[in-house]
Amino acid sequence: MIGLLRCTFNSHSPEHYRVSWNGEHYCGTCNRCGRPIRREARGQWRLQENPSRVAQCERDARL
């Protein structure tokens, strides 16, 4: 419950085994809410809002 509250304030936690590098940022899926996220800085994961980058991250994760 507290985890989802943190996601509401854009503080996400990645599924570490599914994080990928897209050539610009690390990206993945949030462990708590399941939404696409990218790493802004070490330990700072934010919601990925650009749809084209979400698609690129999903392709990279499958490789």
Number-wise, the strands total 4
Shape: globular
Binned, the helix content reads 25-40%
Class derived from helix and strand content:
alpha+beta
Radius of gyration: 11 Å
Task: Note the gap between the termini.
Answer: 33 Å
Low-confidence stretches: none
Number of domains: 1
Strand numbers in spatial order across the main sheet? 1-2-3-4
Strand content: 25-35%
Question: Which short descriptors sum up this protein?
Answer:
four-stranded antiparallel sheet, 4 strands, alpha+beta, globular, 2 helices, single chain, 30% helix, 63 residues
Secondary-structure map:
Blueprint: H1 2-8, E1 20-21, E2 26-29, E3 36-41, E4 44-47, H2 51-62
Antiparallel strand pairs: 1-2, 2-3, 3-4
